[in-house]
Task: inverse folding
């Protein structure tokens, strides 16, 4: 799952906003930018649930646990693909694409393979 689009066509990467020459990219990275926020929300809500658990109804405890798990799962699952180039240093055109971490990591491997000239079989 990707929010936006990304396709590799020859030596060019086309995103939903920009196109990049693969040979000009210096860093292709996938990160989990929402993991610290998800951990903070999960810990806060979990702490609240533990502190006031004796005052909460069972349904409320379940809702608190589900919200904490959703925050933690969302932070773990969502990723960001960044395409950085020396030419783009300091600009907004660094190409951030959001989506599931696993899918973006597979795309990162395809981009690196295309940069080195060996296209994998499942390349887009």
Result:
């Amino acid at each position: 799952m990707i929010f936006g689009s990304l396709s590799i066509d020859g030596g060019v990467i086309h995103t939903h906003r920009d196109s990049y020459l693969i040979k000009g990219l210096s860093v292709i990275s996938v990160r989990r930018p929402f993991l610290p926020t998800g951990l903070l929300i999960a810990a806060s809500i979990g702490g609240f649930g533990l502190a006031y658990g004796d005052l909460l109804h069972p349904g409320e405890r379940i809702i608190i646990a589900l919200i904490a798990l959703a925050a933690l799962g969302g932070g773990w699952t969502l990723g960001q693909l960044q395409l950085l180039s020396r030419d783009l240093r300091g600009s907004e055109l660094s190409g951030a694409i959001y989506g599931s971490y696993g899918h973006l990591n597979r795309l990162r491997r395809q981009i690196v393979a295309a940069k080195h000239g060996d296209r994998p079989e499942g390349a887009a």
Summary: The two ends are 14 Å apart (CA to CA). Residues 58-77 form the longest helix (20 residues).
